[in-house]
Specification:
about 650 residues; mainly alpha; globular
């Protein structure tokens, strides 16, 4: 059958594509038989087992837990990532080994001497400062290798601000700090390298990365793909709807828009083109669907766990808050795909080419047990750490129910290794961002920048939201989503709080925009990945993806003005009404953007659909009535026109 072959893009081509877009994917590939390859595999497995053990049986002291996590990430970074493009890829170089030893020393030093430093009442001695300085250097170098120059350069700029603040003008001026004071703040306290962000990675994120790897090893990914094809494949524009459903579910598991777009796009983008979608549209659909996985509960991207830690709320609070926004995001994408298919006369795939739904459900339905387990645990009040730990155990147990899905011993070790490899970039990102967070806390820069944003917006919430959106878009051009959220939450979220926005909507606003930077031109990594597979113009794919994902931008403004969208007070008539009007608004907006509902839209009909759709997002009865009237006028005109056409055809 067509989708059983899946020969559109080879695995090697997919890996090369991911590497061309994501810096953190360009690592050394040692042979499995080589000694260094075996050492790296062992390190990865031990690191994952460490987090599994602490996740199930209790963590170490917070700083010690973070020190071990950072140590593994640094060691693996220097073994796997060369210092420059032309460096040897067959084995580590002497500088790599020197940095590796320095990494072990600086992390082991704080692990072994933390209690002694605390017993001294926080008074440091020369060797404490030396270890701290070494740690700062190795974190910057490892982050540069793994993620490129942008994030480390931004962090370095913030770090220098601690020293040059006395020479800065206006609100940027501060008294300045000595080198010893800065090292102490960044290395010994929990406001710098070993701060909250690294703590979240050490406690939650790595376990959820492992969870995704075990789910993939069990075969859930192929089940999702087959299930999506069987359900949506025969519908108008079937492959595009398969992409939306399948990539959304896959993205929910692995949390990486680029990786999801590359792996799923290799299968569905050629099929979208085959049934009649234009190349740029096909690439954009896959990019939008893959990006939405990071905001789709129950398992979202790494930044969701940072919200939990920053606000001190249970994970289920964030999970419930994401339900309505994510549903509207994907509904908008599906409706635009649907209207585009109707407008262009694109049909679904032949039913004979598709896998049967019954056999898929019968043979692999048990693979959904871990998702049920994790949702139940999170809703029942379990910590995210415990929920991830028991979800991993349930994944292994569920896979054993059938021979064809059973995770073998090799598969178990492979999941442990892939989990560690997938965690390196996250750990280093949150570590190097610690310099930004630490600087904002030490100098008061965060609150000063927040005041500046409020002043720039002249105290108007809408203008402040727009400036925050621009800031997140600029940051998202060069930063990973997690780092983008941390920086924006440190600088921009306080500005929203000053204008009376509650904490959760303020952070969710930043969280959504940080994720949507993957499809926001001019630099949109997920869209560029889709463009490469579709062989389309990247800018054209980027702007099309922006259009398809526009509901995400509108919804992010909506839940600031209507916090009930985040379900913090449960389900009420007000929430149901707001959701119903938003669904109608999304439908109308999608029709206007695609210039088709029942028929091709005239210009005035498009305007009615777009403006009316947006009005239904704005809270208030008056805007709802105006929006409904405008949509009704446009829809009625199309309905009468189509009936007249049908009557003329019948008369002929």
């Amino acid at each position: 059958m067509l989708f059983k072959k899946r020969t559109a893009v080879k695995a090697a081509d997919t890996e090369a594509l991911i590497e061309s877009v994501e810096k953190e994917s360009r690592f050394r590939k040692y042979g499995q038989a080589s000694k260094i390859g075996k050492i790296i595999t062992c390190l990865c497995i031990v690191w994952s087992l460490f987090h599994l053990y602490t996740g199930g049986f209790g963590e170490l002291h917070s700083v010690k837990q973070r020190a071990i996590t950072l140590c593994f990430a640094l060691v693996l970074a220097f073994l796997l990532y060369p210092a420059r493009k032309g460096a040897k890829r067959s084995r580590p170089t002497l500088p790599d080994l020197i940095f590796l030893l320095l990494s072990v020393y600086s992390c082991a030093y704080i692990f072994l001497n933390l209690d002694i430093m605390q017993a001294r009442g926080g008074i440091l001695i020369p060797r404490d400062y030396i270890a701290g300085a070494i740690c700062v250097v190795v974190v910057f170098e490892a982050a540069r290798r793994v993620m490129g120059l942008i994030l480390p350069s931004l962090s370095l700029l913030f770090l220098f601000y601690n020293f040059i603040g006395r020479a800065m003008p206006g609100i940027l001026n501060h008294g300045g700090f000595t080198l010893k004071r800065v090292i102490e703040h960044m290395y010994v306290t929990t406001d710098g390298i070993f701060g909250t962000a690294l703590g979240v990675a050490a406690s939650y994120i790595i376990l959820f990365v492992l969870f995704g790897c075990f789910l993939a090893e069990s075969g859930l990914g192929s089940m999702i793909n087959d299930f999506s094809i069987a359900v949506a494949g025969t519908r108008p524009g079937g492959p595009a709807k398969v992409a939306v459903v399948g990539s959304g579910l896959m993205g929910m598991i692995n949390g990486s828009p680029v990786a999801t777009c590359a792996t799923m796009g290799a299968f569905v983008i050629p099929q979208m083109k085959k049934v009649g979608y234009q190349a740029h549209f096909a690439g954009a659909v896959e990019a939008v669907a893959a990006t939405g996985g990071a905001v789709m509960p129950p398992v979202m991207g790494a930044a969701a766990f940072l919200i939990v830690e920053f606000l001190g709320v249970p994970y289920k609070t964030v999970m419930f808050a994401a339900i309505i926004p994510s549903l509207l995001y994907y509904y908008c994408c599906i409706m635009q795909v649907h209207f585009e298919a109707l407008k262009s006369g694109i049909k679904g795939l032949d039913k004979a080419e598709l896998p049967k739904l019954g056999p898929i459900v019968k043979s692999k339905i048990h693979l959904l047990i871990p998702l049920v387990v994790i949702v139940w645990l999170l809703v029942s009040g379990a910590t995210a750490t415990n929920a991830a730990f028991y979800a991993i155990l349930s994944t292994i147990a569920a896979s054993m129910l059938r021979k064809e899905t059973r995770i073998t011993w090799k598969g178990f070790l492979r999941a442990l290794e892939n989990g560690s490899r997938g965690s390196i970039s996250v750990v280093l990102a949150v570590s190097v961002v610690g310099f930004i967070i630490g600087t904002c806390g030490l100098t008061g820069l965060g609150m000063r920048l927040a005041d500046s944003i409020v002043m720039l917006g002249q105290g108007h919430l809408f203008l402040t939201l727009c400036f925050t959106m621009i800031a997140c878009t600029i940051l998202g051009m060069g930063l990973p989503t997690t780092a983008c959220y941390i920086v924006a939450a440190t600088i921009a979220a306080p500005a929203l709080l000053k204008l009376g926005v509650p904490e959760l909507p303020a952070h969710f606003f930043v969280f959504y925009l940080a994720n949507l930077s993957n499809i926001t031109p001019p630099v949109a990594l997920a869209a560029f990945t889709g463009a490469a597979i579709a062989e389309a113009n990247p800018n054209k794919v980027g702007w099309t993806a922006f259009k398809l994902g526009i509901a995400g931008f509108i919804v992010s403004f909506t839940f600031v003005y209507s916090p009930e969208f985040l379900l913090q007070d449960g389900l009420s008539l007000g929430v149901v009404w707001a959701f119903a009007t938003a669904v109608l608004g999304v439908t109308s907006l999608s029709a206007g953007l695609e210039s088709y509902w029942l028929d091709h839209c005239r210009i005035w009909e498009r305007l009615l659909f777009i403006i009316g759709g947006i009005l239904l997002f704005v809270p208030g009865l008056a805007t709802d009535i105006c929006g409904f009237i405008m949509i009704s006028l446009g829809f009625s005109a199309q309905y009468l026109r189509t009936k007249k056409k049908e009557a003329n055809v019948g008369a002929e």
